[in-house]
Amino acid sequence: MTENITDHSASKTKSVTETDAWTADNDVDLGILLELGSIGAGNAATSLSEIFQEPILIEVPKIHTLPPHLVPKFYQKHDVPTTAVYMQLRGEADCDMLLLFEVEEAKKIAAMMIRAPSPEDNDPEMEASAIQELGNIVIGSFLTALSDFTGVNLIPNPPQRVVDSFDAILDSFLIKQLLASDIAIVFDTYFKRADGNISGILMMFPSRQLQDVLIEKAKNWVR
């Protein structure tokens, strides 16, 4: 089996190679996933706008699918200091989700949430709590969109926050994924407000059972 990275946006699809997990025949699945990502982002933006008391937009312009072990190579952020929020979803089918920001980006969004004058003024405990709450909101919103579409009941465990280099976080996380999932679904995510943007990465690692449900539901959707 050759390894695959598929890049899908509203305007283009780029297939690098093919894999027996998600082939070119399942391109519509990526379109549906992009739509689910947009729905989840919209729900999260509504919640965050209430917290920030100002309009917040979250855009998901691209989605990538690739084998989990290729994620570090794909992003080339090897030693970049990174803050991540990890959440396990358990139920009729399993799924793990990971939300990542570069540390400086995480500090900016935490400062917005706790109303600190600047990221340098963040209280460490309040910053950690704010990032966990952010993960809870964003991942929870995507979870709702996913559950509504698939009809699969997914129950989230409490979010866990970790700060380390990009590769160290992923290496530790991916060890747990070796037997659970053979694909990573990655959403590039942009948080937009009046005075600037903050970029993040949302990764979903669906179990093989959930992958099958997604493929079948997507086929039914387009019929």
Secondary structure layout plus pairing:
Blueprint: E1 6-9, E2 13-15, H1 27-52, E3 57-66, H2 71-75, E4 81-91, E5 95-102, H3 103-114, H4 124-150, E6 154-156, E7 160-165, H5 166-175, E8 184-193, E9 196-206, H6 208-222
Antiparallel strand pairs: 1-2, 1-3, 3-8, 4-5, 4-6, 4-7, 5-9, 8-9
- Residue share in helix: 40-55%
The number of helical runs is 6
Q: State the total count of DSSP E strands.
A: 9
- Compute the average pLDDT: 81
Model regions low in confidence, pLDDT < 50 over at least 5 residues: 1-6, 8-28
Report the major sheet. 9 strands, antiparallel
The assigned structural class equals: alpha+beta
Give the CATH superfamily. Answer: CheC-like
What distance lies between the first and last C-alpha atoms, to the nearest angstrom?
30 Å
How many domains comprise the coordinates? 1
CATH-defined fold name: Chemotaxis protein chec
